């Protein structure tokens, strides 16, 4: 066996592996003997087929199979031993000739895409901004109000005010204002006047009480939306297209959503039973919650700035474009050439960032274990529950949700990437010189508009 590795450019190489029959014949003979033990051919019992017939019938197929196994072992073994910094998988060279497995010598030629060489290591001489978001009293007020809103309840009231929901009997009227014979009618029709698109129709509900009968025009109220009208009146969208007249509406019920009071029940629902005992403690806990949330946002921004800083410092890199495009085509056989051209530049940017992170991970010594990925999934799940005011979900439920995420390959890949960047961010804050800046949430959000 002979292996030759030749660089054809700074970022590409050609690797040739040559086999003589002696390199693989013993493997082929053993494979034939093993297959002979179970081979069943007409006229012969299993294990009794003559070896000459075995070679005639299966020799070429088994030779090809064993050579391919040997080729894979030697190819990837060589790349590992020589520590070839390769991008993607080796590609069969366009110079490769068809293989005749009966020949005395077999040559396999591969094109290898090599990673560009650069230094992404960071030191305390490198300055990177780190933004801290100020948590204001107004932000705490807003979050407290949101929790109270989520923890509220519905009350039946006697008179209408903006935001209330009404229920009643709706009936189509004729041109004289009388209930239309054979017209549209519906019991328990639910209306939220706050969603009307016509202010004049909306005003007709102001201050009205239960058992009041009003006249209004649903078509005007909903700006002739067939979908809204069909839902309200219980008719098809086609029928709703012809509804343009007035309707009477006898209100039988008015319901109002009342936000929760800042009481122990709300405190327990948000943070767990008995953990918060006063409004002051509740506001303090809400502030800490916001600070923790913004700390993650700050960390995300820090890694974006690290990336931008290093991409600028490293500058333009040389890439084996043609080889990488061939790899991209091979990985997306159902996509056309247009897909490759549209997505190649973006994939190169992500590949560069991947290579940068590999160097940084090596520098900082971080590793991602299975438990780290699970913890990242659990933290992400807690945040999702918290967005709906569920801050005291039992750990068992959080773990179950997180474990389900780990069963989906695409989600695992995203969690691993997030875990790597979180660990890198924590480690790199102790490596570079941080240019600390305290900003408002509005100023912070504007950073992402650039």
- The global form is elongated
What is the H-and-E element order? EEHHEEEHEEEHEHHHEHHHHHHHEH
How many β-strand stretches?
11
* Average of the residue pLDDT scores: 91
| Helical segment count | 15
Q: Rounded to an integer, what's the Rg over CA atoms? A: 35 Å
End-to-end distance, in Å? 56 Å
Stretches where pLDDT falls below 50 for ≥5 residues? none
Q: What does this molecule look like?
A:
- The chain is α+β, with helices and mostly antiparallel strands and 450 residues long.
- The chain folds into three domains: 2-113, 2-Layer Sandwich (Alpha-Beta Plaits); 127-143 and 267-449, Orthogonal Bundle (Trigger factor, domain 2); 153-258, Chitinase A, domain 3.
- Helix content is 49%, strand content 17%.
- It has 15 helices and eleven strands.
- The protein has helices at 21-36, 51-81, 137-150, 199-203, 218-221, 226-233, 237-240, 264-271, 279-314, 321-331, 337-364, 370-386, 395-405, 409-428, 441-446, and strands at 2-9, 12-20, 91-92, 105-113, 127-133, 153-157, 165-172, 185-191, 213-216, 247-258, 433-439.
- Strands 6, 7, 8, 9 and 10 form a five-stranded antiparallel beta sheet that branches. Strands 1-2-4-3 form a four-stranded antiparallel beta sheet. A two-stranded parallel sheet has the order 5-11.
- Strand 1 and strand 2 (12-20) form a beta hairpin.
- Helix 3 packs across helix 9 (279-314).
- The protein is elongated and about 100 Å long.
- The protein starts with a strand and ends with a helix.
- The model has no long low-confidence stretch (mean pLDDT 91).
